[in-house]
Specification:
Elements: H1 3-34, H2 52-73, H3 81-93, H4 95-105, H5 108-111, H6 113-134, H7 146-150, H8 160-214, H9 219-231, H10 237-246, H11 261-287, H12 292-301, H13 309-314, H14 321-347, H15 351-371, H16 382-388
Helix pairs in contact: 1-3, 1-4, 1-6, 2-3, 2-4, 2-6, 2-8, 4-6, 6-8, 8-11, 8-14, 11-15, 14-15
Amino acid sequence: MAPTDQKSQKDLSSLKITVAAVSTLLAQLEAAVKTPPTSTHDDPKSPSDVSALSLSHDAAKLIRAHSTKLSLLIINAPFTPSAISTVLRELASGPLPALATAVEICDSAAYTKVMQSELVWRTQKVFAEFGTLLREVPLDGKVLNKDQKNGTGDAVGKGSLASTGVVWQACDNVMELKKLDIAGLVVKKAEQYRDTLKDAIEELQEWGEEESDEEDGDEENEDAHEADDEEDGKFPNAIQDEIDALFGSSLHIPTDDPNRIRPRLESSIRRLKLIVLMYNAVIKRRFKPISALFLHHLQTNSRPDELEKSVLLETNKGASPAQRLDAVLEVLKKIPDIADELANAFYNLDAKEIDRRMDECFFTGVAATELLATDWSDKDDEFTVWVSNPLSKTGI
């Protein structure tokens, strides 16, 4: 065997070993980030001098760049296993473990639970998608053919180019967290919950409008339509109603409306719209003003123990900014779910359930405003004055 051939075989064998090693490392890192360490009050975790979001941003940026190099090396001739091994070793010794380290230092007491869980999820995505790209690396000494590159023909998988693109997107998502920071992330979450609530309101309005249209006709016309239906071989209205109920069709508000469903619908829509205004106020007065100074305070002076929810709902005293943020986001997240249950109660014409769910929306909205009654320095401001007027006085 010629010296050149011997070197090629050696490089290929080294590549196989490197691919296996990086694959093992990825599995270990994925397992590690699934359960990031938590702090306790008795054993608080000292804040790191390194910013978790900056570290994750830089690590993801390097992973993205190295993935681009790797993608080009496996599709362009000549096939150079030594160059591929070099890229993989650089990843394994630097950005891959650095990204896992960023998750480790992203302590929930310092960065909030919502940021910690978001970084965990996005990091897992990077590791999983890079693992897919790693499996595209050819170990037969040949560059990928057209089908393997594009995921066409008999090629297994989506193709190396598509896999590379997904890695890029996963890395971009991690890098985005530094730009968003804690303030931007909580604003984004709150806006998502608010928009989901607005969708529920729109569905209820459409349901109410459909019923209004049906009530425009008089009883004589309905009797005539029923007779026509019977002549055409269709089911009478009473039978059709039973079939609709059997297959889950929403019920209609009766003309006489003995349970006063329509007034409840109008009142609920009005109140839900006011809760949307509460979301807007929270976003504007509490989330968007979060400053870099506040974030520094949050990351260096927060208490790592978690207070009981009942205590948090009664008072803000003793709760760190991180705890207040996490607590209020949990409350804001619940409201759209309750609104969905409220909508189902209307569709079932269940007056008692409608009242129960609307009260639940009201008290949950009150809980959200009470958690943020004072500003981040625990001082009163315009929002405090707004909160001091019970939501019921504004129609909620």
